[in-house]
């Protein structure tokens, strides 16, 4: 039997995504991983959940421990351009050839135990199988959705992290802050510490109760650690004070994420705590594409993966700091399963004009509906193709203006892919294409 090509493997996995959709159970992925002799138990893990900020915190942890000299694996989702972005060891994402080989091993294991994993379960099993063969010192694993029934929740972490709690994916996680917190707290394991970011007190109370039931120590932002403002940022807590912190990521909100990442680096029990210099160098070097990322100038083009109400409100505030006094032209698309009306209110309030488009049909929201929602805020245009829409905006708006691409990571991915194609893979985007670190 001939080996499939990477393109064929990618197509097979995407068919799983469109065919099976999201079905939250741990039975299938557990059976597959058991058949693979539990690869997830062969390396220490920091497990990161949260409504917003979990990807940034995961990238920061990866950068801090890399700066400390460790070989660190990273599993994140979703990807922006290539599936292989999700699975990294060190600074390198898994190669297409290795991706195919790991896919074949997971496929054979799933067939032997008569399991039919979903897309995310399959890729998660692939990540753990690849990491087990790569002997990392530590793996940072980002939860896909929720926590309790997420496919990643088969690990026994050296520390768990819950970054933020807000309303998102209510059809799966519940429509109250307490319900969402309970689902996220499902990643807390017996006698393993949990680091909690800046969350509402009603969410923190739920998390503390879950942690107490499992004998897990809680380390909470604002109580056990904090990060002071001003030009010289300073982390304080857990017996450490680290000053002169600078971030490779834009956005004031990222400093709260940085404090959470530092606390997690200090609380994890697998490796010696990183020194102050490694923390500084890691945070200064971290790159996380699609988060307040500048991908063009004159006009300034900013892409951001904000995809829920809280993220949109934070983004709207950041635009005033990033480009004060400049007109903002919004290119927007969103998934129809999102509660997007609050996103329209937040981003519409800072936009001089709006162009709405669609990505990932049929899951993507109808641009006609979006246009009607944005109409009270100002002029709205409907575009069928997001990349063409961006190019039109770049040609027509004033060079002093700002183009903001937001509403969905799928939109950001489509725009980045178009820019990479136009630039031959490099030179158009800041950083190194879709890389995490230099």
Q: Would you mind describing this structure in some detail?
A:
The protein is 40% helix and 16% strand. The protein has two domains: 6-285, UDP-N-acetylmuramoyl-L-alanine:D-glutamate ligase (3-Layer(aba) Sandwich); 293-422, Mur ligase, C-terminal domain (Protein-Tyrosine Phosphatase, Chain A), CATH 3.90.190.20. Helix 3 (54-67) packs across helix 10 (276-285) and helix 11 runs parallel beside helix 12. Strands 4-3-2-5-1-6-7-8 form an eight-stranded mixed β-sheet, with helices on both faces. Strands 12-13-17-14-15-16 form a six-stranded mixed β-sheet, sandwiched between helices. Strands 9-10-11 form a three-stranded antiparallel β-sheet, covered by helices on one side. The chain has 15 helices and 17 strands. With 438 residues, the chain is an alpha/beta fold. The chain has helices spanning 6-20, 27-35, 54-67, 96-112, 119-134, 170-173, 177-184, 201-213, 253-267, 276-285, 309-322, 341-348, 367-374, 386-396, 409-422, and strands at residues 45-49, 72-75, 87-89, 92-93, 138-142, 159-162, 194-196, 218-220, 225-228, 233-237, 240-245, 293-296, 300-303, 328-332, 353-356, 380-382, 402-406.
| Poorly predicted ranges | 424-438
Q: Give the name of the CATH architecture of the largest domain.
A: 3-Layer(aba) Sandwich
Q: Give the CA-based shape.
A: globular
Radius of gyration: 21 Å
Tell me the total number of β-strands: 17
Largest sheet: 8 strands, mixed
Rounded mean pLDDT score: 91
Strand-residue fraction? Answer: 15-25%
What structural category do the secondary elements indicate?
Answer: alpha/beta
């Amino acid at each position: 039997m001939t080996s499939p090509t990477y393109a064929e493997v990618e197509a097979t996995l995407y068919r799983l995504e469109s065919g099976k959709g999201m079905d939250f159970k741990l039975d299938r992925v557990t059976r597959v991983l058991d058949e693979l002799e539990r690869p997830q138990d062969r390396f220490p893990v920091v497990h990161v959940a949260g409504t917003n900020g979990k990807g940034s915190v995961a990238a920061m942890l990866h950068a801090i421990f890399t700066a400390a000299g460790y070989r660190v694996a990273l599993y994140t989702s979703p990807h922006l351009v290539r599936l292989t972005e999700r699975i990294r060891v060190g600074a390198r994402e898994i190669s297409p050839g290795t991706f195919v080989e790991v896919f074949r091993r997971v496929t054979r294991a799933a067939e032997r135990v008569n399991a039919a994993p979903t897309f995310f379960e399959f890729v998660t099993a692939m990540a753990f199988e690849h990491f087990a063969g790569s002997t990392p010192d530590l793996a940072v694993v980002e939860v896909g959705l929720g926590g309790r029934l997420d496919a990643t929740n088969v690990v026994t972490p050296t520390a768990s992290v819950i970054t933020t709690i807000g309303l998102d994916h209510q059809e799966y996680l519940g429509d109250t802050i307490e319900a969402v917190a309970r689902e996220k707290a499902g990643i807390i394991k017996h006698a393993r510490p949990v680091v909690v970011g800046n969350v509402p007190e009603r969410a923190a109370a739920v998390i503390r109760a879950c942690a107490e039931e499992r004998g897990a120590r809680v380390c909470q932002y604002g109580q056990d650690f904090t990060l002071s403002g001003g030009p010289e940022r300073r982390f304080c807590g857990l017996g450490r004070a680290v000053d002169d912190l600078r971030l490779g990521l834009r956005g004031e909100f990222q400093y709260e994420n940085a404090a959470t990442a530092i606390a997690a680096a200090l609380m994890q029990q697998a490796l010696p705590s990183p020194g102050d210099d490694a923390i500084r160098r890691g945070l200064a070097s971290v790159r996380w594409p699609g988060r307040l990322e500048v991908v063009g100038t004159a006009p300034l083009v900013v892409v951001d993966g904000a995809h829920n109400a809280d993220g949109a409100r934070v983004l709207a505030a950041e635009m005033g700091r990033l480009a004060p006094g400049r007109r903002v032209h919004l290119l927007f698309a969103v998934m129809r399963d999102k509660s997007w009306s609050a996103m329209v209110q937040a981003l519409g309030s800072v936009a001089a004009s709006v162009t709405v488009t669609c990505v990932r049909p049929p899951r993507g929201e109808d641009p006609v509906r979006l246009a009607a929602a944005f109409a009270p805020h100002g002029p709205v245009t409907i575009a069928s193709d997001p990349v063409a829409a961006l190019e039109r905006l770049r040609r027509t708006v004033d060079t002093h203006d700002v183009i903001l691409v937001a509403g969905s990571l799928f939109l950001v991915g489509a725009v980045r892919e178009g820019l990479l194609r136009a630039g031959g893979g490099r030179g158009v985007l800041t950083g190194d294409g879709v890389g995490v670190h230099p």
